[in-house]
Amino acid sequence: MAVRTAGKKPFQERLNKAYDWMAREGIGMAMIEDSEDRRDSSLRWLTGMPADALLFLSVERKALLVPWDINIARIYAEADYLRSYGEFDRLPVKACKKAAALLKIPHNSRVEIPSVTPYPRFLGFIEALTDFDVICRETDSFSGALEQFRAVKDEEEIAVYRRAAAITDGIIDLLEKQLRGGKLKTEYDAAQLIEGECRKQGCEGTGFKTLAAGPGRSFAIHAFPPYTMEPFGTPGLSILDFGVAYRGYTTDVTLTVAADSTRAQEKLVTLTEKAYKLALETARSGRAAVDIAAGVDAFFARANKSMPHALGHGIGLDAHESPVLRNRGDNGWILEPGMVITLEPGLYDSKLGGCRLENDVLITEQGAEALTHSRIIRL
Amino acid sequence: MAVRTAGKKPFQERLNKAYDWMAREGIGMAMIEDSEDRRDSSLRWLTGMPADALLFLSVERKALLVPWDINIARIYAEADYLRSYGEFDRLPVKACKKAAALLKIPHNSRVEIPSVTPYPRFLGFIEALTDFDVICRETDSFSGALEQFRAVKDEEEIAVYRRAAAITDGIIDLLEKQLRGGKLKTEYDAAQLIEGECRKQGCEGTGFKTLAAGPGRSFAIHAFPPYTMEPFGTPGLSILDFGVAYRGYTTDVTLTVAADSTRAQEKLVTLTEKAYKLALETARSGRAAVDIAAGVDAFFARANKSMPHALGHGIGLDAHESPVLRNRGDNGWILEPGMVITLEPGLYDSKLGGCRLENDVLITEQGAEALTHSRIIRL
Description:
Two copies of one chain form a homodimer.
Chain A: E1 2-3, H1 11-25, E2 29-34, H2 42-47, E3 53-58, E4 62-67, H3 70-76, E5 81-82, H4 92-102, E6 110-112, H5 119-128, E7 133-135, H6 142-151, H7 155-180, H8 187-200, E8 205-206, E9 211-213, E10 236-242, E11 244-246, E12 249-250, E13 253-259, H9 263-282, H10 289-302, E14 312-314, E15 321-325, E16 340-343, E17 346-349, E18 353-356, E19 359-363, E20 368-370, E21 376-378
């Protein structure tokens, strides 16, 4: 077995949060799985491993990483122990059982598996790990605790976000310049500019599939297909939704191009701009996320419009993280300093097209600081 | 409620398979979910809806589609009934309960939810649907039946694949030409050529993230990041793994560029080519997938090499579908005419770099027909 130097900062600090939580909750071993079927960026948050591995943590503060590709793990990951997934036939239940032995987890300990474990798989764990008390839960879960920890970014993460936001802003400026100069003509042109520029600036790539929708396709919340060879920025409303992933952390912005827009289109645009301003003014530490979302919904309702999606969401290693800014009773999130969220009001009309304005915002002690500066571009 | 023309071919034929299965198994209602957290292309296979919806089928042969974006559904989807997800607060359990009422499912009927439903969510369904017998299973499941149906492509799908393969081959030829002409110099150049060409040919985009890894990064099974500004096709081994999605169906091919390769590198390449030839010769209708994979593993073992991944997998609306060509005891797949699979032997060395050769193959009555023609490119 390869024994590695355990957890450099910031991984050690994050692991400590996880270990402390396990000790408090009486969890002997906790498992994290990132696979093609079920992605979980907590793997990367805790170890640096970008994807495709199991991670087992013991309350005795040891981490065992079980990667699909051991070469990638040797370069990127920090863990006390490293074992190839192939040794366990790439079977999570088998790996879990061996991990418990390897980490010397006492019999009858509580072993927590991910909240997203499918019910039939859960039964498989129960059947195989008879010496342990296997727990899979949503409320008060380990997965949920990690989600809470990750919702508030640490200093290192905020520094990364400032750089990612600067790269994003640079791309927005370049997009506007090329649009005004007549060089950017298709959805494809917009998407390709982003793919190239982000990599030139040292990004891993885009954080998610770029959505570029010209006037004929902007009515959809998320265009399908994501982008095509169709015109972009021609008369009407065009939407461009993208993010760049820098050291794993993705930005998420949307700009709308309003070209020769009609009065009805301009009304959508103006309402969206006002809704964004309202959201930015009301988003601050201590406020309930549901209230900020409800405020924007009420604003749109007064204009007889409605927004078919949430106002925003946390961003980080995933494009969609906690907290969510959704106007629904089950949303209990309170904004805190260090949260990085999107604000993205939008209106969509099957005839007029769609309009969305989205920026990334850092919640501070004083209020909300826009990290990115996307905007409506009127041509 | 919007009532729509029900199921045109081929959707109606596929729905009929699903309804017949439900009748045989005594399932009153079955649910399919495609969401950000849990993708399920059976949604698209049955209705044409590309993504982000719930689908409820009744044994009385009615389909209710509940999309996140109703504008997209109106353009792409076929279903008897259409209701916006927003009506159910975008809550699967709530939508399921209302769907049962709307589709007039008799009390005490068996209602089957997806195999991948997380255990805590499963409990939520049980709690809310007290009038029904809620079933979530892996063995003999509805999800599994759909997986079986989808593993064998129908005539329409095979026709789509022939076109997708021709586009893929055209791109491979262009890549080779640009490589030999010295125009294609970086991983980024390769990825961008694919992004542009596939869209020019009417594809929806790439079927998955293009993996382009020059000699410095080809040791990984799946390079991380997927592609960068690093050199490609320079001395050593470079790997390019990509697919194009045509009408939803993705190809999946890998070519390796061996430039000024050393004897040790050339050995990896030659072994991979021989393994591919062996796989293509042995893959045929009636044979067990596990045996074909075991044959290739044994071939590599005789050369003191080992392949750290499966030999191949089905492709379709997903880049990874059934059957899997994995050398593991639990693999019970038998090849059948109409299956479209990849064959992708590969060897990876942290010092020499990696080599993989992958093509898409149609299983026929007579044998295996290579649809794509990827290859080792020696420079």
